[in-house]
Write a structure and sequence with these properties.
The complex is a heterodimer. The longest helix of chain A is centred in the last third of the chain and has 18 residues, at 381-398. Chain A is globular and about 65 Å long. In chain A, strand 20 (286-289) and strand 21 (296-297) form a beta hairpin. A five-stranded parallel beta sheet of chain A has the order 3-2-1-7-19, covered by helices on one side. A five-stranded antiparallel beta sheet of chain A has the order 22-23-26-25-24, sandwiched between helices. In chain A, helix 1 runs parallel beside helix 8 (302-317). Chain A has helices at residues 12-23, 50-53, 63-69, 141-151, 164-175, 191-194, 196-208, 302-317, 381-398, and strands spanning 4-8, 29-34, 72-75, 79-83, 103-107, 112-115, 117-120, 124-126, 156-160, 179-183, 212-214, 219-223, 226-229, 234-236, 239-242, 246-248, 261-262, 265-268, 279-281, 286-289, 296-297, 328-333, 336-342, 349-355, 362-368, 371-378. By secondary structure, chain A is α/β, with parallel strands linked by helices. Chain B is mainly β. Chain B has strands spanning 10-14, 23-26, 34-39, 42-47, 61-63, 66-68, 75-77, 94-100, 103-107. In chain B, 37% of the residues are buried. The chains are: A alpha/beta, B mainly beta. The complex binds flavin-adenine dinucleotide (FAD) and FE2/S2 (inorganic) cluster.
């Protein structure tokens, strides 16, 4: 198979797409465009071991993989615009492609990259809290380096937002002996992702590890040395971290392509296709339509980036798509492994199948009228994996 | 397979106690933990710790001759230790395991 593919965003989703394209026999030209200067690295580590070790971990295997992928890397360059062409399918062996205009990607160095097929994989950026100069956000290696330096001199850390990033930073900072307070406006942080019962059990981990968690709080103002809450409380802080969610990086593609996106991600069908032929979107920047639930969801997890990359590579090369699997993510907090697979929001009941919610480990199954729809475990990867594989099998046999 | 120090062998347990589908992890002194898998294809022994991060492969998912890491799903070939793909970048070490009578005997390999 030949032709040309340009991938915008050279991180987990983009790299995975290139790997999957090559694995599926695509021999054409591949260009990877990324605005970070570094080769792709493990982002999840930035809120975890990186804050202790200071060592970034690369995603690429080694030079032999770089050679095998045979991609042109345009790093440290940002895409600032997209002009859609007609697009054309990848040429199968011996088959002449129909004449078509390529799509164009405009870069901030004035260059233009043209390709038959585009994969948009520009990820997301932290949502900002206005009026808090000097606060830390955590998304990339630079952010993590800055935060790490600061943490070594921090006595009192206040983290605004107790989602996964906030919780992981709290845990890592605690491990460095920092006094940590987490504040969240929700009564139970992460309830949307985990369901209330499990979210409450996870929230307990903070107190059990000496981190103060203040929930249902509203912030009145943030000063360089303190966070003031509505109602008068003042939380002294020499460092403030904000983790209140992420916004997809889509604006760069311009508003000339209204079909390409809404405000929360490049919209795609189940196969990662946008409304423009030959343009696909994957990873944190993609909002994927699920015909079964009828919902459009933007996943912000490692696993989704990889499976979406494989799905899109299958669509582009006309090879069989990967089997459908339940959504999956993990988090590490206070030396414990939290794993979740499936869709807890579809559940009517929760069944504890191992351990105890207030214990050292647990495994819980979410059910919809008796049918398993999700599974969550704290420190029980073996039982979790078995339950997750069952969810995957159920999905495969249902379609 | 690479050579191993012939003198060091370990009794893992009785074959009767490790049915097909089961796995047992041993912690030989001075060595990393080793897991012995009893699969349809026979017994296999590999280093228990995933080469990507700190996950126990004994907790993983075995299918045929591969085990999938329970954390980020890299697969390892139980026969060769080779990683099928990312995020793991390196193979896990394999070890010799055999049945003598009803005993499962492990000969840890010490080369890297
Ligand atoms: C601190 C942290 C911890 C995490 N921990 C976990 C975890 O424990 N478990 C889990 O499942 N998930 C975790 N995640 C989520 C996971 O890392 C993401 O889902 C994953 O990185 C998404 O990959 P992506 O390639 O879509 O986006 P990204 O990794 O964000 O990559 C997008 C890339 O595109 C670049 N880019 C953006 N705009 C442009 C442009 N205009 N031109 C060129 N390049 C551009 C960006 O700089 C970036 O390099 C974590 C994320 C973070 C930030
Ligand atoms: S720890 Fe095994 S694949 Fe990541």
């Amino acid at each position: 198979m030949t032709g040309s593919v340009a991938v915008v965003g050279a991180s987990l989703a983009g790299l995975s797409a290139v790997r999957a394209l090559r694995a599926r026999g695509f021999h054409g030209t591949v260009t990877l465009i990324g605005d970070e200067p570094d080769l792709p690295y493990e982002r999840p580590a930035l809120s975890k071991e990186f804050l202790h070790t200071g060592e970034p971990t690369g995603l690429l295997e080694d030079h032999s993989e770089t050679a095998r992928l045979d991609a042109q890397w345009l790093l440290g360059r940002r895409a600032i615009g997209l002009t859609p062409g007609m697009g054309r399918p990848i040429e199968q062996e011996g088959e002449a492609a129909p004449h078509a205009e390529p799509h164009l990607i405009h870069l901030d160095d004035g260059r233009t990259v043209s390709a038959d097929t585009l994969i948009l994989a520009t990820g997301a950026r932290p949502r900002r809290l206005p009026g808090v100069p000097g606060a830390h956000y955590l998304r990339n290696l630079d952010d993590a380096r800055r935060l790490r330096e600061t943490l070594y001199e921090t006595k009192q850390l206040v983290i605004i937002g107790a989602g996964f990033i906030g919780a992981e930073v709290a845990s890592s900072a605690r491990g460095l002996g920092v006094d940590v307070t987490l504040v969240d406006s929700a009564p139970i942080p992460s309830a949307a992702a985990l369901g209330e019962t499990i979210a409450a059990a996870c929230a307990d981990l903070h107190a059990r590890n000496g981190v103060r968690l203040l929930t249902g709080t509203r912030i009145e103002s943030v000063r360089p040395d303190a966070v003031h809450l509505i109602g008068g409380a003042r939380l002294a802080a020499d460092t403030i971290v904000i983790g209140i969610g992420a916004t997809p990086n889509i604006e760069w593609a311009g508003d000339r392509n209204p079909l390409l996106h809404n405000a929360d991600g490049f919209e795609t069908d189940t196969q990662g296709r946008t409304a423009i032929p030959g343009i696909y979107a994957i990873g944190d920047c993609a909002r994927v339509h699920d015909p079964i639930s009828g919902r459009d969801t933007r996943s912000e997890h490692w696993n989704a980036a990889i499976t979406q990359a494989q799905t899109v590579a299958a669509a582009i090369t006309g090879t069989p798509p990967p089997a459908r699997t339940a959504p999956y993510f993990w988090s590490h907090q206070y030396g414990k492994l939290l794993q979740l697979a499936g869709d807890p929001t579809a559940a009517t009941d929760l069944r504890i199948i191992d351990g105890a919610l207030d214990g050292e480990s647990f495994t819980a199954r979410y059910e919809h009228n008796g049918t398993p729809v999700a599974v969550c475990a704290l420190d029980n990867p073996r039982l979790f994996t078995r339950q997750r594989k069952q969810l995957d099998r159920d999905l495969t046999s249902a379609h | 397979m690479a050579a191993s120090i012939p003198s060091l062998t370990l009794l893992v347990g009785k074959l009767g106690e490790l049915p097909v589908g089961a796995v047992v992890t041993v912690n030989p002194t001075g060595l990393a933990p080793i897991s012995v898998f009893h699969t349809e294809e026979g017994l296999f022994a590999i280093d228990d710790t995933c080469t990507h991060q700190d996950a126990s492969l004994a907790d993983g998912w075995v299918e045929g001759c591969t085990v999938e890491c329970p954390l980020h799903e890299s697969c390892f070939d139980l026969r060769t230790g080779a990683a099928s793909g990312p995020p793991a970048k390196r193979a896990v070490r394999t070890h010799r395991v055999e049945v003598r009578g009803d005993d499962i005997v492990l000969t840890p390999s010490t080369d890297s």
